[in-house]
Write a structure and sequence with these properties.
The structure is a single chain. By secondary structure, the chain is α+β, with helices and mostly antiparallel strands. The chain has an 18-stranded mixed beta sheet that branches. The chain has a two-stranded antiparallel ribbon with strand order 9-10. A two-stranded antiparallel ribbon has the order 21-22.
Length: about 375
């Protein structure tokens, strides 16, 4: 599988970001991204999707949107919409209708910053997701890079510190977001987790001092999505766009704080006899089914099933666990970085299913007189 690096939930000059597509592409090339998905507020920017190439490197910029009801105060229920052919903002007044329309259009929908704090110092409310009765969305933004500022900066000195040292912000996803994700998975729903940078590259000026706060390149080198593709990107826009959205739809991906350590070499697989699957895949449970995790360096490593911690190993880079229970299995890894324990890798699940019973059908000569019974061993 090909591991490519994707940053999504990015804002440009078409809403409240400071950079145009060319500037964003330049920052992405400087930080080694493969894909950037721009999601401006309530506008689907068309005609700008393409590869940007420089010095033998290339990055693909795609356009989605972040949709929310602008007539609602405060403006909660933000939805990231990817891969749609048509504008979706007109459906924002009803979250379930919006999700349904995205599905009909062949797109993907991710609940944005599902939980966050307010920031009274700057008259910023929390923009959480409230309509949890909805169904049919592709996934949720487990970790939002910009929203986490509201978690760690609860005073003016902390805000100033993080404005000049943003690399200190990322710690881990909100515990409420992790708990909600596990709750949905335990209920049998397939919910794909993504990370969103929520990057704006804000420009602030005070008298003669001018500073860009949280520039694109900071976000692009911080929390990213790593997508697992069956083959490398080809350079063909239509073909690569399809492969990227298929990986996001399936959950063939994981979240990584790349700034803490690069994840090349990370694998999370399940094996069952001759069958071997990875993130986003399904596996029927048989005796001897085994989970296997490999990390490129030692870390605090956890294996979780439906929200229940099964294994926790400190200072390990390998985990092998035989399983006997169906469920959604996922992995977390934590590292010490910049003086704190920080989340490093959060995998999407492998879905282990109870093996269905097989039936034999005997049909008599009379019409409609068929009977079913469980298969039994053949007597020799």
């Amino acid at each position: 599988m090909e591991d490519i690096k994707c940053n999504l939930h990015v804002h440009s000059v078409y809403s409240d970001g400071s950079g145009d597509y060319t500037h964003i592409a330049t920052e992405a090339l400087d930080t080694g991204l493969d894909v950037v998905i721009i999601t401006d507020h309530n506008v689907l920017v068309k005609g700008l999707e393409r590869y940007f190439v420089r010095d033998g490197k290339r990055v693909l910029l795609l356009s989605g949107e972040e949709v929310h009801d602008q007539n609602r105060m405060p403006q909660k229920n933000h939805l990231l919409v990817l891969g749609c052919r048509h504008e979706m903002a007109q459906h924002a007044y009803d979250p379930q209708r919006l999700i349904n329309q995205v599905t009909r259009d062949g797109g993907l929908s991710f609940i944005a910053h599902p939980y966050e704090f307010d920031l009274p110092l700057f008259n910023e409310t929390d923009i959480t997701w409230e309509s949890w009765e909805v169904d049919g969305f592709t996934g949720m933004e487990l970790w939002n890079g910009f929203s986490e500022l509201k978690t760690v900066a609860r005073s003016l000195p902390r805000v100033i510190l993080h404005a000049f040292a943003p690399e200190l912000i990322p710690h881990q996803p909100q515990p409420q977001a992790l708990a909600r994700w596990d709750e949905l998975l335990a209920a049998g729903k397939k919910v794909v987790a993504v990370a969103g940078s929520d990057s704006h590259a804000l420009n602030y000026q005070y008298k003669f001092i001018r500073k860009e706060i949280f520039p694109y390149r900071y976000h692009f080198s911080s929390i990213n999505n790593h997508l697992l593709l069956p083959s490398p990107l080809s350079g063909d826009l239509k073909q690569d766009k399809h492969a990227i959205y298929q990986a996001l739809r399936k959950g063939a991906s994981y979240i990584c704080l790349d700034r803490a350590a690069q994840p090349q070499g990370f694998t999370f697989t399940a094996e069952n006899g001759e069958t071997k699957v990875s993130m986003g895949d399904e596996l029927f449970l048989d005796p001897g089914a085994t989970m296997r995790v490999n990390l490129p360096r030692k870390a605090l490593l956890r294996l979780i099933c439906n929200g229940e911690l099964l294994v926790e190993e400190e200072n390990h880079n390998l985990l092998v666990k035989t399983i006997d229970t169906p469920g959604a299995y996922r992995v977390e890894a934590y590292l010490n970085h910049l003086g704190a324990t920080r989340g490093w890798i959060f995998s999407n699940p492998i879905y282990v299913l109870k093996k269905p019973k097989l039936y034999e059908v005997s049909v008599s000569s009379g019409i409609g007189n068929s009977t079913e019974s469980p298969l039994s061993p053949v007597k020799q």
